[in-house]
C-alpha cells in the first residue's frame, strides 16, 4: 500500500502538527506502509531552504516540498503542487489530508474526486466552535464553495478524540469516523534534569518551575497565565515561569511588556522555540505545565508533558481534557482568571500531589499514546477503505 499525506506546511515552528505528520509517517513506514508527505516550503511566513519538486529524505521520511506561491500567503497555495498531483495521484492507493480551509488538502480532495482515489480528512480541530468563530465569514464561504463537498466525498474523517468527533457530527458530516488519538514518543531520560534546568537559567533549587510550552498565539492565552501569576506574586507565591515557543514579534513583545508591568521580570524566562534536548530538558526539569488555551484539537504538547511525568493545568477547550481528568494527570479549569490562580496555587503548595499527577499522566500516555499502536489501527482503516 502506498499512502500520501498532504499538509500545508511542516515548518518546525508550527510545533504539534509538524511532529504529528512526521511521527505518524515514521510509524506507518515501520509497519511496512510506503508513506510519503507532500507539503510546501512554507516556514511560518518565511521559506524553508529545501530542494523543491523532488522526493527527499527529511527527518528520515520521504517528503515532496513544493513552492508556496509568495504572492498569496493566505491558505498557502502552491500551483506547482496542483499540476504535480494531477499527474501523479494514481501512484497512490489513498491520500491522507491534514487540515481544512487550506489550499493543499482542499485541492488534493478535489483532484481525488475527479480521479477516483480515496482520501481521508483530519480536521485538526478546525470544526470546533471556537475555531469556526475565527474568520467566520471566510470559512462559511469556503465551506459553501469547497469544503462541504470535500468532507461529504471523503472515505472517512479521522478524529483524535470523542470531542472532535462530536464537532464533526455537529457540522453535519455523515461520513464514517475513525477515532484514533495521536501519539507521542517517550523522551530519553535526562539524569538530574531538574537541577540541570535550574543551573541553566539560574533558578534556586527550592523554587518550583511553571512551564508554558506552545506556539505564542492569543489562542493559547499565555497572557492569562501571566496575569494569574502577577496576582499570585502579590501573595508571596514562589515560582519561576518559563515561556517556550515562538510567535509574531508584536505579540511576543506585548507578553514581555506585560511581564515587566506585573513585576515578574525576575521570575520569568522567555526561551524562544525549543526542540530536541532543550525541549526534553524543559519537560523533565519543570514542575508544572500550564496551557490555558481557548481550543486545542489533541494537544501534542500536553501529551508530551504527560509522558514526561509533568502534571497539567488546562481547560475544557482541550479535546483530551476528559482523558487528563479521568487519568488523574492534572486539573481541568474553566479558563477564568480566578480558577486558574487557584489551581496553580493549589499545586504549587502540594508537591506530593504534583508528583502523583505526573506519574498518573506518564503511565496513561505510555499506554494510550503509542505511535506504533496507533499506526497499526490506522492501517486497518486504510485497508478497509481501499478494499471498498
Describe this structure as you would to a colleague.
This protein has 388 residues and is of the alpha/beta class. Helices cover 45% and strands 17% of the residues. The protein has 15 helices and 16 strands. The chain has helices at 16-30, 79-88, 103-115, 129-133, 136-152, 162-170, 193-201, 222-234, 249-261, 276-285, 300-307, 321-326, 337-348, 351-368, 371-387, and strands at 2-6, 34-40, 42-43, 46-47, 55-58, 61-66, 94-98, 119-122, 156-159, 177-179, 209-213, 240-244, 268-272, 288-291, 312-314, 330-332. The strands form three sheets. It has an eight-stranded mixed sheet, sandwiched between helices. A six-stranded parallel sheet has the order 13-12-11-14-15-16, with helices on both faces. Strands 3-4 form a two-stranded antiparallel sheet. Helix 1 crosses helix 15 (371-387), helix 7 (193-201) packs across helix 10 (276-285) and helix 11 (300-307) crosses helix 14.
Amino acid at each position: 500500500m502506498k499512502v500520501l499525506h498532504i499538509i500545508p506546511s511542516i515548518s518546525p515552528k508550527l510545533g504539534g502538527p509538524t511532529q504529528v505528520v512526521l511521527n505518524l509517517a515514521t510509524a506507518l513506514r515501520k509497519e511496512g506502509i510506503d508513506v510519503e508527505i507532500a507539503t510546501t516550503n512554507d516556514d511560518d511566513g518565511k521559506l524553508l531552504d529545501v530542494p523543491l519538486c523532488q522526493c527527499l529524505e527529511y527527518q528520515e521520511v520521504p517528503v515532496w516540498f513544493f513552492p508556496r506561491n509568495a504572492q498569496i500567503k493566505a491558505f498557502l497555495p502552491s500551483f506547482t503542487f496542483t499540476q504535480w498531483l494531477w499527474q501523479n495521484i494514481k501512484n497512490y492507493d489513498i491520500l491522507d489530508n491534514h487540515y481544512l480551509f487550506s489550499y493543499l488538502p482542499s485541492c488534493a480532495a478535489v483532484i481525488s474526486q475527479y480521479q477516483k482515489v480515496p482520501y481521508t480528512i483530519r480536521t485538526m480541530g478546525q470544526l470546533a466552535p471556537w475555531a469556526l468563530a475565527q474568520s467566520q465569514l471566510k470559512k462559511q464561504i469556503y465551506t459553501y464553495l469547497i469544503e462541504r463537498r470535500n468532507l461529504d466525498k471523503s472515505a472517512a474523517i479521522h478524529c483524535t478524540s470523542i470531542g472532535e468527533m462530536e464537532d464533526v457530527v455537529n457540522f453535519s458530516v455523515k461520513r464514517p469516523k475513525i477515532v484514533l488519538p495521536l501519539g507521542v514518543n517517550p523522551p530519553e531520560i535526562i539524569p538530574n534534569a531538574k537541577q540541570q534546568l535550574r543551573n541553566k537559567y539560574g533558578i534556586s533549587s527550592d523554587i518550583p518551575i511553571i512551564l508554558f510550552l506552545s506556539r505564542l498565539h492569543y489562542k493559547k492565552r499565555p497572557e492569562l497565565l501571566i496575569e494569574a501569576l502577577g496576582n499570585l506574586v502579590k501573595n508571596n507565591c514562589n515560582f519561576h515561569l518559563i515561556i517556550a515557543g515562538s510567535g509574531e514579534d508584536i505579540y511576543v513583545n506585548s507578553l514581555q511588556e506585560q511581564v515587566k508591568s506585573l513585576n515578574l521580570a525576575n521570575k520569568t524566562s522567555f526561551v524562544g522555540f525549543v526542540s530536541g534536548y532543550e525541549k526534553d530538558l524543559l519537560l523533565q526539569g519543570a514542575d508544572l505545565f500550564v496551557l490555558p488555551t481557548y481550543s486545542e484539537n489533541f494537544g501534542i504538547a500536553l501529551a508530551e508533558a504527560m509522558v514526561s511525568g509533568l502534571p497539567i493545568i488546562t481547560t475544557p477547550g482541550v479535546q483530551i481534557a476528559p482523558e487528563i481528568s479521568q487519568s488523574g494527570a492534572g486539573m481541568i479549569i474553566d479558563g477564568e482568571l480566578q480558577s486558574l490562580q487557584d489551581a496553580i496555587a493549589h499545586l504549587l503548595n502540594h508537591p506530593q500531589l504534583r508528583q502523583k499527577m505526573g506519574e498518573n499522566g506518564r503511565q496513561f500516555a505510555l499506554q494510550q499514546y503509542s505511535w506504533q499502536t496507533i499506526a497499526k489501527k490506522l492501517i486497518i482503516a486504510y485497508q478497509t477503505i481501499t478494499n471498498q
